[in-house]
Amino acid sequence: IISRSQPFGEKSKRWLQVSSSCGIDSAKELHRKNNILSDNVSFEFCANLVRKTNRERYLATLLLPRSAQASVLAINAFNTEISLISEHAYEDAAINIRYLFWRDALHEISKHSSSLPAHPVVQQLAHTVYKHSLTTAFLKQIITARESNPDDVPFQTYKAAEQYAEKTCSTVLYLTLEVLGVRNHAADHIASHIGQADGLVTLIRGVSFLASKGKFRLPLDVCAEFGVVQDDVLRGKDSPALRDTIFKIASAATSHMNTARTLLADCPPEARVCFLSSVPINKYLDMLQKVDFNVFDERLRRPNGMLPLQLFYAKVFNKYP
Questions:
Q1: Distance between CA 10 and CA 136 in Å, rounded?
Q2: How far is CA 4 from the centre of its chain?
Q3: Helix H segments across the chain?
Q4: Within 10 Å of residue 299's Cβ, how many Cβ atoms?
Q5: pLDDT tens digits along 135-174
Q6: Which one, 67, 171, 213, 273, has the greatest CB density within 10 A?
């Protein structure tokens, strides 16, 4: 789905020209009038954004039914855009403006407005919402959760971190199920647990990266339980206390994965492919155990070159979640 006759770079330049000159005109109007901002441009923008920022999710999406791939990429591109707001804007006013932009965009999508912002993710997301009758409250929930939990503020409790994972990662899976035409309680229950595991693993994976930026997000109650010194973590210093904290969070993620597996018997067969994203979660947890829960170990930062084959094998032989 990523091969196109015209290079993405040229199309993205055209989109930038259009967006700067045409303001809030909808993609349909632009396409009708000038045939400039096409659905193809919006798709490629979303695909490239997800590929560059979340390779694992991108590869898992390529194994979904072809009819669902573009829509799932749009959902993940939206989630990525929201997650990167604090990285692209440093002042509170600028951050608030960006959140307001996305809230307004969802409002326009919800009322089927003809004046959608000329932003490729907005355009592709609108098409996805209309095509699959997505629950827009889920999209709004992602914004609210990320806005309420900036990445430079630690979670006060483990429970808060788990709830954040459910409102972000699990919600993306709920929307993916809707794209697949699955609205089933058992499938939602599995998605909830896998999403929470994903969010907890993301929290662990982010420790080293955030520390390099002077940020710390680990739950304060768990850190206090084991005596983690925040300044040591920010300096990239490993310690038994930090390993114990990571072990506890990783164990909770593993527990969520185990619970998800026990629910598979009641899951519709067509829903299972949604959970391919569990493969890289399991691989990371396995590697984390091998390095004895040292989040600063270089082996955890190496890309998994075998992941495409691992995902394909898991799908063919149903070796997931």
A1: 32
A2: 25
A3: 8-22, 27-34, 39-53, 55-61, 66-83, 85-88, 92-110, 120-132, 136-148, 158-165, 171-179, 185-212, 220-226, 230-234, 240-262, 278-290, 307-317
A4: 10
A5: 999 999 999 999 999 999 999 999 999 999 999 999 999 9
A6: 171
- Residue the block writes with tokens 């900036």: 150
Residue 270 has pLDDT above 60, yes or no: yes
Residues 38-61, mean pLDDT to the nearest whole number: 93
pLDDT one-digit tens code per residue, 76-113:
999 999 999 988 888 999 999 999 999 999 999 999 99
**Cα 73 from Cα 63, distance rounded (Å):** 12
Long-range contact pairs involving 80-86 (C-beta distance under 8 Å, separation at least 24): 80/49, 80/50, 80/53, 80/54, 81/49, 81/121, 82/142, 82/143, 82/146, 83/146, 83/168, 84/53, 85/146, 86/150, 86/151, 86/152
Q: What pLDDT score was predicted for residue 101? A: 97
Which candidate, 207, 304, 187, places its Cα nearest to that of 247? 207
- Cα dihedral across residues 51, 55, 59, 61: positive or negative: negative
